[in-house]
Model the fold of this input.
Amino acid sequence: MPAFIDSLSVRLQAAADSATQGEHSTLYHNLLALLPDARVPVVALIEDLKKISDQAGRLADEMDFSFLFNQRRNLLSVAFEVEKQQLLPACYDLLASEARIAYFVSIAKDEIPQESWFQLGRAPMEEDGAVGLLSWTGTMFEYLMPTLWMHTYPNTLLERSAVVAVSVQQKYAAEKRVPWGISESACSKMDDGGNYTYFPFGVPDLAIHKPDPMGPVISPYSTVLALNIDPQAALRNLRTMQRQRWLGTYGFYEALDFTPTRGRSPSRRPQLVRCWMAHHQGMSLLSIANSLHDSIVQRWFHSHPRVQATELLLQEKPVGRPNGQIKGAKAA
Done:
């Protein structure tokens, strides 16, 4: 970054020297005057980021998922009860969920057996002839959050499931005549403390556990997650949200709640959820980085030897068409 400041300084000086007197010349000289003071905080920021990176690396190495492993079921428990010193019997067991990140990393670190990946439920569904997987609540988050780090290989079960999920979400929103993008998020309903409540909103056609029938509650971060699946549609959707003034000081607001009974005004107009959640903002930044810089976060993750030795799990091909009963659940 200091080298970038040096390069910028040279370019600004050249621009200032060539500019005629006037507004542009004044702007260039003003920017040049600010650069020396910018160097110190930039260097400090770099050092802080290096420390955070080192700490994150240590935490990842020290994190051991094996204590959550239910050996009888060959799956990861949803939690460990500290007071009783025992695992809860419920386990994460759906491939189309964010839980697959924990399985993948645990397998890559040799903390749980590879066979547990194939114990994850693959509940089938079909949309216009395309075969995908059902998730627990039909949220964009479940399908797309893992793709922030993990490659989505063409013509694989996970890739087709992501594409189908985005398509179903788009059609569902079109029927409701609202922008698309539904995930777990805050909504306009408040608790006794005046805080927005949080709920796993989803699309029924994608869900094993049918979500809240009220809504819909549209969260912009859900669309940002889809930038690498359907970029043109995602950008159009975000522009629609921008035109409808879903933007605030720190970017898009958390959500817009279209639930009629939650409208606080006499006209019952949809309510903006005027907050920003750090994890949703973080996911959005990673998705934007992947979109603008050739999947840079995915490439970084897959540069690790352990990940490279395990990434074949992500290349599972879809087999056949949906049939039979759905088995398994996200937390069964």
User: Anything to note?
Assistant: The two ends are 49 Å apart (CA to CA). Residues 2-62 form one domain. The longest strand covers residues 184-190. The chain has ten helices and 14 strands.
